C-alpha cells in the first residue's frame, strides 16, 4: 500500500496598487499576495498547517517582502 502525502503552498492575488519598491526604488505596481500552506493526502488538500501569510511583490524586480497590517487593511 502506498501513502502519498505532502505540503502544498498556494498563492492568491488579493489586490494591487502603484507604489515605490523598497528594493529597486522604481515606482511600479505592487501586488498583494496571500500564501496558504495545506497538508495534502493523495494530492487532495485537507487542512492548513500554518496561518496564511501576506506578501507584497514588486512587478518591476519581482522581489517580495512581508506585508504590514496597514497594507492589508487598505487592500
Please describe what this structure looks like.
The chain is mostly beta strands. Helix content is 8%, strand content 60%. It has one domain (14-74). The chain has one helix and five strands. Strands 1, 2, 3, 4 and 5 form a five-stranded antiparallel sheet that branches.
List keywords for this structure.
single chain; mainly beta; five-stranded antiparallel beta sheet; 5 strands
First-to-last CA distance: 47 Å
Residues in β-strands, percent = over 45%
- State mean pLDDT (0 to 100 scale): 89
Overall helicity: under 10%
> Which segments are poorly predicted (pLDDT under 50) over 5 or more consecutive residues?
none
Number of self-contained structural domains: 1
What's the order of the H and E elements?
A: EEEEEH
Major β-sheet, in short? 5 strands, antiparallel
Structural class: mainly beta
Number of helices: 1
Shape call:
elongated
Domain Zinc-ribbon: 20-64
InterPro entries: Zinc_ribbon_15
Protein name: Zinc-ribbon domain-containing protein
Amino acid at each position: 500500500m502506498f501513502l502519498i502525502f505532502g505540503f502544498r503552498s498556494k498563492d492568491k492575488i488579493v489586490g494591487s496598487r502603484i507604489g515605490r519598491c523598497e528594493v529597486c526604488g522604481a515606482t511600479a505596481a505592487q501586488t498583494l499576495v496571500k500564501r496558504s500552506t495545506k497538508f495534502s493526502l493523495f494530492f487532495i488538500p485537507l487542512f492548513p498547517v500554518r496561518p496564511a501569510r501576506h506578501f507584497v511583490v514588486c512587478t518591476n524586480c519581482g522581489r517580495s517582502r512581508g506585508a504590514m497590517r496597514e497594507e492589508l487593511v487598505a487592500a
